[in-house]
Specification:
mainly alpha; 8 helices; elongated; 0% strand; 82% helix
């Protein structure tokens, strides 16, 4: 999407309303996924994943947008990206919650491994967006599949959402680094204790 297209897109009330609709739908879907996840954990009487899916539900942009709709009586303030950032972020959070639900159903993945894979997925996503923004064929390729307006909205959602996802990527990377350091210290301590016992 070039700069001129994006500037005009920001003046589109239809795009803004679509962003609100997507954020609200993703918010409702997130509630359903979290309730399903909570139901699984209640049945197992283990709440080890609660610390992951609860913040993801709270961070959904739909709640902030809904509060603005209530305060301003339905008058939606124009945003510089026509809400595409909120749209992309809400989709990312909902997909992440759905991934947690799948992990809970299958029960074959640890939280640490999930966080590591999620972080790797985020970095791959940013790499794809980086190359997408520098590609000259992505817009025409999508426009051949769908209408030009839909193609611009899809690309805007991906590119706009990447900024919001970036903060999650940094936080996830930091968490993974801290967990790795803790695990390394724990293993070194265990080796030292075993060495001390063997020497005695």
């Amino acid at each position: 999407m070039n700069e001129m297209q994006f500037r005009f897109a920001c003046l589109s009330i239809e795009w803004l309303n679509t962003s609100y609709t997507v954020a609200y739908v993703m918010g409702v879907a997130s509630i359903a996924v979290v309730l399903a996840s909570l139901g699984i954990e209640v049945r197992r009487w283990r709440f080890s994943w609660l610390i992951l899916y609860t913040p993801l539900l709270i961070l959904q942009p739909g709640w902030r947008l809904l509060w603005g709709d209530i305060i301003y009586h339905g008058v939606r303030p124009a945003s510089s990206d026509c809400g595409l950032g909120n749209r992309g972020e809400s989709i990312f959070l909902t997909v992440t919650l759905a991934a947690i639900l799948i992990v809970l159903i299958r029960g074959n993945l640890s939280r640490r491994t999930f966080l590591l894979r999620l972080t790797m997925g985020c970095w791959i996503f940013h790499a794809l967006v980086f190359f997408l923004e520098r590609s000259t064929i992505h817009d025409s390729f999508l426009s051949n599949l769908v209408s030009h307006d839909v193609a611009d909205q899809v690309l805007g959602t991906v590119e706009g959402g990447a900024a919001g996802v970036g903060w999650y990527t940094l936080v996830l990377t930091l968490i993974c680094a801290v967990l790795w350091l803790i695990e390394r210290v724990r293993r070194r301590t265990q080796r030292n204790v075993k060495g001390a016992i063997s020497a005695s």
